[in-house]
From TrEMBL:
Family as reported in the entry's similarity comment: Belongs to the class-I aminoacyl-tRNA synthetase family.
Enzyme Commission number: 6.1.1.2
Full protein name: Tryptophan--tRNA ligase
Enzyme class: ligase
Subunit structure: Homodimer.
UniProt motif ('HIGH' region) ranges: 10-18
Role of this protein: Catalyzes the attachment of tryptophan to tRNA(Trp).
GO molecular function, one term: tryptophan-tRNA ligase activity
Species: Alicyclobacillus fodiniaquatilis
Top-rank lineage group of the source organism: Bacteria
Lineage, opening ranks: Bacteria, Bacillati, Bacillota, Bacilli, Bacillales
Length: 327
C-alpha cells in the first residue's frame, strides 16, 4: 500500500482553492493508500501569528479535514508540533539543503518581497516540508501546483542524503490534479486564489455563508463576449469558473461547455453559485458540529501517537547515519 502525506497551514480560513486543489484529493486517496494529513503549525509561524488565533486555527483546520470527509479511522490526522520528530528532522535537513537552492524557491521570493521583516524560518521552510514528507517514507504527496517546486526540492534533498549516507528515504512523487491544481482569484484570473489575498472578494472561503458565496460569484470578473467556453488563453476568467463548476458537480469541461451552450454568463454564474453553496453545505454543517464537540481533540491525540510511532525508525536511522552518538 502506498504511503501518502500532505499538510495544510492553519493560517486562517481555507479557500475553495485549498479544497479543490488538495483536500478533495486527500479524501479520495484515503481509500487506496495509507494516509497522513497534518496541520502544519510549525510552518505557520514562519510569518507572525497571534498565539490565540494559531491555537484556534489549528484545531479548526483539523475539524475541517474531518468535515470534508477525511475519516480518522482510515487516515492519520495530527498536528505537526505534536510530533517533535518534524522539527528535529527539519533541522537536520537544513544542514543538507543548500542556501542557493532555498533562495531559488519562488514561494520564498513572493512571500518575502516588499516585507520589512523576513524570518530565517520563511527561508528554510522547504527543508521542514521535506522533513514532514521524508519522515514517513512517503510515496505520494497530494498538493496544488504551487507546491511543485517544494516537492522537487524534497526529492533532491532525499536523493542527496541517500547518495551520501546510503538508502534512507523513499523518493516521493507529487500528486497534482490536472484539473483544479491551480484555482485562480475571482478578481484577477492571472493570480492564484489565496487565503492571504487582501481582498476577500478574490476568494471563496470554505466557511463562507451562502449569500456571501452568491455575492462573490456574481461579482467575479468575466471575459469579453458572452460565451461559456473553456479557453485558458483567451478566456481565463470563465475557464477558471468553469473549472470550479466542473469540480463541484463532477462534470468534465466538455460536459460543462455543453450544459451552458447558448446560455450566457448570467445563468452560468447563478448555477455555479448554487453548485458551490450545495457542495460546501454538508462540510460546513459537519464542521460546526465538530468544533463544538471534543471529537477533534480525541482524533488529534490518537493521531499524534500514531504518527510518532510511524516515523520513529526513520529519525533514528538518520541520526545514526549522520554520526550522532547514541544515548
Ligand atoms: P498551503 O497551506 O499554502 O496550501 C494547502 C494546499 O492547498 C493547495 N492550494 C491550492 N490548490 C489549488 N489552487 C489554489 N489556488 C491553491 N491554493 C493552495 C496547496 O498547493 C497545498 O497543497 N507548504 C504547504 C504545506 C505543507 C505541506 C507539507 C504540503 C507543509 N508540509 C508536506 C505537503 C506535504 C503549504 O503552505 O500549503
Amino acid at each position: 500500500m502506498k504511503r501518502v502525506f500532505s499538510g495544510i497551514q492553519p493560517s486562517g480560513n481555507l479557500t475553495i482553492g485549498n479544497y479543490l486543489g488538495a483536500m478533495k484529493n486527500f479524501v479520495h486517496l484515503q481509500h487506496e493508500a495509507d494516509c497522513l494529513f497534518c496541520v502544519v503549525d510549525l510552518h505557520a509561524i514562519t510569518v507572525p501569528q497571534s498565539p490565540e488565533a494559531l491555537r484556534q486555527n489549528s484545531r479548526n483546520l483539523a475539524a475541517l479535514y474531518i468535515a470534508a470527509g477525511i475519516d480518522p479511522e482510515k487516515a492519520t490526522v495530527f498536528i505537526q508540533s505534536h510530533v517533535t520528530a518534524h522539527a528535529e528532522l527539519g533541522w537536520l535537513l537544513q544542514c543538507i539543503a543548500y542556501y542557493g537552492e532555498l533562495g531559488r524557491m519562488t514561494q520564498f521570493k513572493d512571500k518575502s518581497a516588499q516585507k520589512d521583516v523576513v524570518t530565517a524560518g520563511l527561508f528554510t521552510y522547504p527543508a521542514l516540508m521535506a522533513a514532514d514528507i521524508l519522515l514517513y517514507q512517503t510515496n505520494l504527496v497530494p498538493v496544488g501546483e504551487d507546491q511543485k517546486q517544494h516537492l522537487e526540492l524534497t526529492r533532491d534533498i532525499a536523493e542527496r542524503f541517500n547518495h551520501r549516507f546510503g538508502d534512507t528515504f523513499a523518493i516521493p512523487d507529487p500528486y497534482i490534479p490536472q484539473v483544479g491544481g491551480r484555482i485562480m482569484s475571482l478578481e484577477n484570473p492571472a493570480k492564484k486564489m489565496s487565503k492571504s489575498d487582501e481582498s476577500a472578494g478574490a476568494y471563496i472561503s470554505m466557511l463562507d455563508e451562502p449569500d456571501v458565496i452568491r455575492k462573490k460569484i456574481s461579482r467575479a470578473v468575466t471575459d469579453s463576449d458572452r460565451e461559456v467556453r473553456y479557453d485558458l488563453e483567451n478566456k481565463p476568467a470563465i475557464s477558471n469558473l468553469m473549472t470550479i463548476f466542473g469540480l463541484f458537480t463532477e462534470m468534465s469541461m466538455d460536459e460543462v461547455t455543453q450544459h451552458f451552450a447558448g446560455k450566457g454568463y448570467g445563468p452560468f454564474k447563478k448555477e455555479l453559485a448554487e453548485a458551490v453553496v450545495e457542495g460546501l453545505a454538508p462540510v460546513q454543517k459537519r464542521y460546526h458540529e465538530l468544533v463544538a464537540s471534543d471529537e477533534v481533540d480525541q482524533v488529534l491525540r490518537l493521531g499524534a501517537q500514531k504518527a510518532a510511532s510511524m516515523c520513529e525508525s526513520t529519525l533514528v536511522a538518520v541520526k545514526d547515519k549522520l554520526g550522532f552518538l547514541p544515548q
